[in-house]
Design brief:
By secondary structure, this protein is an alpha/beta fold. The chain has 15 helices and twelve strands. The protein has two domains: 152 residues, Alpha-Beta Complex (Aspartate Aminotransferase, domain 1), CATH 3.90.1150; 239 residues, 3-Layer(aba) Sandwich (Aspartate Aminotransferase, domain 2). A seven-stranded mixed sheet has the order 2-8-7-6-5-3-4, with helices on both faces. The chain has a three-stranded antiparallel sheet with strand order 9-12-11. The radius of gyration is 22 Å and the shape is globular. Its EC number is 2.6.1.-.
Length: 403
């Protein structure tokens, strides 16, 4: 496989090492508490499942579907944006349904990237943000993953020193993996910068409904002038606990949306029609299930921060997303995030995602997903406490293992 140009450009998949160790431990009978993958464990709300079952009974829905999404689904997404953000979208020209936000990002990269084009990507970042463009032949330049002066300084440097000039800025707030959040003032500054330098902005808003404070995360499209340069990607995976359904959206700038729709028209016929009908039902329905899901994640977050803290691991409480971005405890920092993650599986029966897997600036952290129930989170904390205590009495041996 190393002989192929595109696969040769991809770095080793760090998470695979953790996954192999996890599978080996499970095969040996270990009860691994898996908080590594952002894979929602909550069932899809029943009314959405019922709509799928009802629709699939009609044989006409078994035929090829629409690549850019059936009209009713695109209208439902436009309706959601108007209710939630006060943003008006034309369902025909500013909305495309995607097979999850991941596919949307990858195909947008294929649509707009010429060989050697420079793209500004957060580091650490969700892998597809970087590797979608890498596979499309682009070149990456890292920017900070948290909103603030450092990010804008990096943007200014990139415009001055990148040849050719960057074509796009990738943003993700609430952020995966760091759980950072951004406000409308931040987006206003980004839009002003992007319009001034004629650079597109691709915003990943997959965690828009998983927030724990009083202020819901905004959309970049709420900013005046954002439609000139921005496309935003959303997903039903987390909002409605529909990860396996593979349903997401790209919305915003008509030129970019048309390019994405054109590429997709050559590659797929869209999701199975009953899935699209059920997705429209989810978007058009009551918000009660969203609030219930948000409350479950909030309780899990609180249990995680409390129980892990009492186990000796102080973790900042995330304001949003379904992740905690946890600094490696001081006594294990020398090991690095990959080796520390392996040790957690071997010694504590807990799986997390090593920060290095999200980019070089993710080193020193691990990402912990809120994808186990409260009882299992407390069980994980007990295993971690025992591991920390045992490691304390064997600190010399642990030091050698990281040498």
């Amino acid at each position: 496989m190393d002989d192929f140009h595109k696969t040769r450009r991809l770095p080793p998949y760090v998470f695979e090492q953790v996954n192999r160790l996890k599978a080996k431990a499970r095969a040996a009978g270990a009860d691994i508490i898996d908080m590594g993958m952002g894979n929602p464990d909550l069932p899809t709300p029943q009314h959405i499942v019922d709509k799928l079952v009802e629709t699939v009974q009609n044989p006409r829905t078994h035929r090829y579907s629409a690549s850019k999404g059936i009209p009713g689904l695109r209208k439902a997404q436009a309706g959601y944006y108007e209710r939630r953000f006060g943003v008006k979208l034309n369902p025909d020209t500013q909305v495309v349904a995607t097979l999850g936000s991941k596919e949307g990002f990858a195909n947008m990269a294929q649509a707009i990237t010429a060989p050697g084009d420079v793209v500004l990507v957060p580091n650490p970042s969700y892998p597809i943000h970087a590797f979608g463009f890498l596979m499309a032949g682009g070149s990456l330049r890292s920017i900070p993953a948290t909103p603030g002066p450092e990010l804008f300084e990096a943007l200014e440097r990139a415009v001055v020193h990148s040849i050719p000039k960057p074509i796009a800025i990738i943003l993700c707030f609430p952020a995966n993996p760091t759980a950072s959040v951004a406000d409308l003032d931040f987006y206003r500054d980004v839009v002003a910068f992007a319009r001034k330098h004629e650079i597109y902005v691709l915003s990943d808003l997959a965690y828009s409904e998983i927030y724990f404070g009083d202020v819901p995360p905004p959309s970049i499209l709420q900013v005046e002038g954002a439609m000139d340069i921005a496309v935003e990607f959303t997903s039903l995976s987390k909002t409605f606990s529909m990860p396996g359904w593979r349903m997401g959206f790209a919305v915003g700038n008509e030129r970019l949306i048309a390019a994405l729709a054109r590429v997709k028209s050559y590659l797929d016929y869209g999701a199975f029609t009953p899935i699209q009908v059920a997705a429209a039902s989810a978007l058009n329905g009551s918000d009660d299930c969203i609030r219930e899901t948000r409350e479950i994640y909030k309780k899990r977050r609180d249990v995680l921060i409390d129980s892990f803290g009492r186990a000796g691991w102080d973790i900042p409480a995330p304001e949003a997303s379904m992740f905690a971005w946890a600094p490696i405890p001081d006594q294990f920092k020398h090991l690095g995030s990959l080796e520390f993650s392996k040790l957690l599986i071997e010694k504590a029966d807990v799986a997390v995602a090593p920060g290095i897997g999200f980019g070089e600036h993710g080193e020193g952290f691990v990402r912990i997903g809120l994808v186990e129930n409260e009882q299992r989170i407390r069980q994980a904390a007990r295993g971690i406490r025992k591991f920390f205590e045992d490691a304390g009495s064997n600190s010399e041996e642990l030091s050698k293992s990281g040498a």
